[in-house]
């Protein structure tokens, strides 16, 4: 079982499209105009991975149906897109946010992205299956990640680079 290559953090920010755009128009703008520019900026600052998860009305309806089948305990997220960043340190993201080119790119979002009901999450990633194989478990089947007390302390940048 492969060892942890690196400890990654994940920040996800969920947005809705502007009410004036169709799902298709929003997707076209995001993928053809926004993502390529943003990707170059994120790579420049060492972001490990950057991507967007699009959730169409059809996808949301499917999730709601799954939820009903499982007893209705989920709150199904109704955001149009969730932007995910995988990084080694919160400092990498704060450096991106300070970049003048990135700030200009964010200003271009206004006619496309609703400024309402934005939701963000931040946490660390523990991967246990990768490329179809079990990873990050020792021979006894225990995770090889540091303990919760170490991982949960986001004030410690050493942890974020571990």
Sum this structure up briefly.
The chain is α+β, with helices and mostly antiparallel strands and 162 residues long.
Task: Name the helix and strand elements from N-terminus to C-terminus, one letter apiece.
Answer: EHEHEHHEEEHH
Q: Cα distance, first to last residue?
A: 19 Å
Number of domains: 1
Number of strands: 6
CATH class: Alpha Beta
Which regions have little confidence, pLDDT < 50, spanning 5+ residues?
A: 158-162
- The share of residues in extended strands comes to 15-25%
Overall average pLDDT = 91
| CATH fold name | Alpha-Beta Plaits
Helix content: 25-40%
Q: From the 3D coordinates, which CATH architecture would you assign? A: 2-Layer Sandwich
Class based on secondary structure composition and strand pairing: alpha+beta
The biggest beta sheet is recorded as: 4 strands, antiparallel
Q: Give the overall silhouette.
A: globular
Give the radius of gyration.
18 Å
Q: Treating each run of at least 4 consecutive H or I residues as one helix, how many helices? A: 6
Structural summary, described in words:
- By secondary structure, the chain is an alpha+beta fold.
- It has one domain (8-161): 2-Layer Sandwich (Alpha-Beta Plaits), CATH 3.30.70.
- It is 38% helix and 20% strand.
- The protein is built from six helices and six strands.
- The chain has helices spanning 23-44, 57-69, 90-98, 100-107, 148-151, 157-161, and strands spanning 8-15, 49-54, 81-87, 119-125, 129-130, 133-134.
- The strands form two sheets. It has a four-stranded antiparallel β-sheet, covered by helices on one side. Strands 5-6 form a two-stranded antiparallel sheet.
- A hairpin with a 2-residue loop joins strand 5 and strand 6 (133-134).
- The two termini are 19 Å apart.
- The relative contact order is 0.24.
